Amino acid sequence: MSHKSPITCHVLDSTLGKPAKFVAVELEQLTQDGEFISLAKGATDADGRASQLLPAGVAPLAVGTYKMVFQTEAYFSENNIQCFYPKVERLTASTSVLDEMCTSI
């Protein structure tokens, strides 16, 4: 049985109306220096899901700011579709707010 990564994503190609297969995905963390560093790299599967981004045994993520970078240019090129954005970055809010809400319940 495979482990479940605490961070997953599902990428859909709205131009085709189906999952985006084999899109490269990178998880990055914002450092105190204001730079993003790579924590993990992976790709979506045939269903457009990246469900094994963080390997088993990785320590829980610290409170902070993270982003996922989706390398869309290669995906669209592979599918002979003109690409408007070569990559898409999805920034997540600081997890400290969520942690505070959960501990105050």
TrEMBL record:
<protein>
    <submittedName>
        <fullName>Transthyretin and related proteins</fullName>
    </submittedName>
</protein>
<dbReference type="InterPro" id="IPR023418">
    <property type="entry name" value="Thyroxine_BS"/>
</dbReference>
<dbReference type="GO" id="GO:0006144">
    <property type="term" value="P:purine nucleobase metabolic process"/>
</dbReference>
<feature type="domain" description="Transthyretin/hydroxyisourate hydrolase">
    <location>
        <begin position="7"/>
        <end position="89"/>
    </location>
</feature>
<dbReference type="Pfam" id="PF00576">
    <property type="entry name" value="Transthyretin"/>
</dbReference>
<dbReference type="InterPro" id="IPR023416">
    <property type="entry name" value="Transthyretin/HIU_hydrolase_d"/>
</dbReference>
<dbReference type="InterPro" id="IPR036817">
    <property type="entry name" value="Transthyretin/HIU_hydrolase_sf"/>
</dbReference>
